[in-house]
Amino acid sequence: MKLTLGFSPCPNDTFIFDALVHKKIDTGTLDFEIMLEDVETLNEWALQGKLDISKLSFPAFFSALHQYVLLNSGSALGKGVGPLLVTNKSNNITEEEINHATITLPGINTTANLLFSFAYPEAKNKKFTRFDLIENLVAAGNNNQTTEFGVIIHENRFTYSEKGLYKVADLGDVWEQKIKAPIPLGGIAVKRNIEKNVAAQVDKLIKKSLEYAFSNYPKVADYVKAHSQTMSEDVMRKHIDLYVNNFSLRLGDEGRDAIRKLLEVYNKLQEHNTLHTSNDELFVLET
Asked: Is 66 assigned a catalytic role?
């Protein structure tokens, strides 16, 4: 049986899926057609129901609940892993300044956008672009002497200061302090029309693929390097260390509870279309 599988080319995803993609583990009767895309493209595809299995941001998952259910393995949750609000201005930044500024974010359906709205609900002036362009867009303000703001994710957490940027707020810290739960960033979802036994098999394969990766770490697989050519191996490892952890192997009760809390926040921030769903409708049964 062949299934379409989409995830990002970022080190955390290629680290998780390397063994599955290259059949370093036995995938049994399942075969996968792999599509690597920026997470916001994957989010948009999920809203269209394009792929059988997909990495996606949690707000996109909440919007696509009628089509997808979350797997237990492959998610990105944790503490100290949240997106950062950065600026090119070194002076003290006030909340009022942020509320009236234009903020560049990595996508309307991203968890970064949701966490920013949670931290700064009065800041409504947003523009969206691909995550890896935001650093340079904010830094460009130095050339025309304007103050720019952006929310950065992924490996940009480790490189923004090299671009002359300054951290205004860690949006993950705001979440952790107020909600007292790990930060849910993204997960792996499967189409609801796929048979449960097949979904459970996929779930087990992702877990096995990650276990294989962990067993060979800190060696960085060629697959990870091939899609992270602009990064040093040190930054690749920092990326993996930050975003891949025990929650990636299995959500568990703590991970599931954090996702339910994020759904509550998502619903509160929506002006329309509050999602009414039971807890059982969010997740594939534990395997």
From this structure: no
CB 183 within 8 Å of CB 258: yes
- In whole numbers, what is the pLDDT of the chain averaged over residues? 92
Annotated catalytic residue, options 66, 154, 227, 239: 154
Non-local (6+) Cβ contacts of 164 within 8 A are: 88, 139, 142
Q: Quick one: pLDDT at residue 271?
A: 63
pLDDT in tens, 53-78: 999 999 999 999 999 999 999 999 99
**β-strands 76-78, 149-152 pairing:** unpaired
The residue type of 39 is V
Distance (Å) of CA 77 to CA 10, 45, 178, 209, 257: 15, 22, 16, 18, 11
Question: pTM higher than 0.85, yes or no?
Answer: yes
For 36-46, write each residue's pLDDT tens digit: 999 999 999 99
- Cα–Cα dist 204/207, whole Å: 5
pLDDT of residue 287: 46
